[in-house]
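Narrative of activities, Objective 1.

The group set out to show that a structural description can be obtained from nothing but a protein's sequence at a throughput compatible with the screening campaign. Below is one input-output pair from the validation batch, recorded exactly as produced.
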Amino acid sequence: MNKIKLPTESRLFDKPRFKLVGIVSGVVGIGFLFWILLSPKVPEGMAWIPPGEFSMGDDSDREKYADALPVHKVRLQGFYIDKTEVTNCSRSGSIFSTHARSCGLL
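Output recorded for this entry:
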């Protein structure tokens, strides 16, 4: 009966290309794990807005939107924002009495 010989050593993963892919995958995986474990908890009543990029400006009416030219990309870092709207008048009653008076709170 003929036995099938399996290779005991593979030369496929000895190539630099495969080693680099393995190292990069490992670093990305470990980085993602640390990001999950070490990311701060979202404070109560707030929402986390992740970092991202968007186009800002308007080319539709050059005279009307002259200050919005040219359309350009803006990249923001992640930030927290309140889930509910907070107005200056609602907060100013306990902080600045002059603002409270102007809002009719005093």
